[in-house]
Amino acid sequence: MGDTSINITEVADSVRNEFKALYPLLDECSIYRVPERLRRLNDKAYTPQVVSIGPLHHGKQEFQAIEEHKRRYLQDFLQRTKVSMERFLEIILDRETKIRNCYAEPISLGSVDLAKMVLADTAFIFEFLLRYSFHTLRKHNDPIFNRWSIIDVTLDLWLLENQLPFFVLRELFDLAHIDTSFAGNEKVTMITLTQKFSTFISQSFSIEHKFDENIFSSVEHFVDVMKVCLQPPYSVQNPNGLRILKAPSATELHHAGVKFVVRSSSKNLMEIKFDKGVLEIPRLRIVKASEPLLRNAMAFEQRRSPHTYITDYVNMIELLVISPKDVELLVRHEIIENWLSGGEPVSSLFHNLIKETPTDLGDFYFSSVINDLNSYCKDPWHQWKATLKEEYFKTPWAVVSIIAAVILLVLTVIQAVCSVLQVVLM
């Protein structure tokens, strides 16, 4: 029997009090910790190396050196504007609840410490973007652009766990009205700075992308900016979907007679097209930064987006580059621009990217392309035609030899028939 001395009402009240302490699940939430199942695959790809932004990695010992430099950037930024530090802090404190609601977990910092952190991190981002975009603003003794690698800092700003809400950046930059005489006649706004900063994504993947005000007004942070850069310009309905995620590799497609063509007119990675035996794929540049960029974009997409375009793209490329030979084939056709050391790192990269990542086969973006490729390769005529071309029509001389042999064979048959007819008619 249970302990009759326990007051059930008090127990129930205790549980109700725990309900009150629950962290609310809100639509504003857009900044998350990466799931452990993904972090185990490559922890470094999700963890800032030089600078922490926002509360999730704030206060760690390894970032203390750059915390002092953030204060220098804050001082420089305040000198560019006539707005007082008090006014900036006032705005941040007024937005405290909204800021906290952007994170998927409680922030342990109190109001004062949170406001100081947001101000320092915001000023750091502003100064970094200004110096990134306008080289004349860089100082010869600035460790960000000298001692510390600018690439490392840049990558840190594209990590999902290392973000500030974009509405804070927009509001504070608009409030600052900084002196932009250094830019000449060029307009300097948060959108133009972000546009320049997003060229890192464009150059990393060999794509082009431009913002407009409508898109920019809705982005939630830099990782969302990256998602916008990479996702297709329009959605595609795939009523049939896929039953299984399987397609021929690049080498198998080549043996089946598929012709690979770079879709040079495309400015988006997603515009892969297959028609009449021709597979058109936009050029993809693979660099060291490709893995962390793709991993963070995919992690955000899995949590926040109704469509997993980037995940689907990575799956599509992974199907094509099963082996280093597949990579080398696509490199020869200039579809992949490989800045890594050979084909094996590229094929391994895509194999590892799709691990522990769920895929919605019913809404797979490239369903029609995969279905068409599978159907094409099942037709034995395509295989036979490709083999004939590969084995017997490699060079003009081989073609001439085969034609001559055929003519000789025809003449021999004609001669034989004539001989038979001559005997019969005699």
Mean pLDDT: 88
Low-confidence stretches: none
**Number of domains as seen in the coordinates:** 3
The ordered string of helix (H) and strand (E) elements is HHHHHHHHHHHHHEEEEHHHEHHHH
Protein structure class: mainly alpha
Percent of residues in helices: 40-55%
The portion of residues forming beta strands comes to under 5%
Global shape: elongated
Kindly report how far apart the N and C termini lie.
121 Å
- How many strand elements? 5
- Note the main sheet: 3 strands, mixed
Rg on CA atoms, Å: 30 Å
Main-sheet strand order equals 1-3-2
Number of helices: 20
Pfam family, one: DUF247
Keywords: Membrane, Transmembrane, Transmembrane helix
Description:
Strands 1-3-2 form a 3-stranded mixed sheet, covered by helices on one side. The chain has a two-stranded parallel ribbon with strand order 4-5. It is built from 20 helices and 5 strands. The radius of gyration is 30 Å and the shape is elongated. It folds into 3 domains: 36-197, no CATH class; 250-378, no CATH class; 384-418. The longest helix has 30 residues, at 396-425. It has helices at 8-20, 36-39, 64-80, 85-94, 96-101, 111-133, 150-156, 166-176, 190-197, 199-205, 213-216, 222-230, 250-255, 290-304, 309-320, 324-332, 343-353, 367-378, 380-392, 396-425, and strands at residues 259-262, 273-275, 278-281, 284-286, 336-338. 53% of the residues lie in helices and 4% in strands. β2 and β3 form a beta hairpin. It is mainly α.
What is the element layout, followed by pairings?
Layout: H1 8-20, H2 36-39, H3 64-80, H4 85-94, H5 96-101, H6 111-133, H7 150-156, H8 166-176, H9 190-197, H10 199-205, H11 213-216, H12 222-230, H13 250-255, E1 259-262, E2 273-275, E3 278-281, E4 284-286, H14 290-304, H15 309-320, H16 324-332, E5 336-338, H17 343-353, H18 367-378, H19 380-392, H20 396-425
Parallel strand pairs: 1-3, 4-5
Antiparallel strand pairs: 2-3
Helix pairs in contact: 3-6, 4-6, 6-9, 12-14, 14-15, 15-17, 16-17
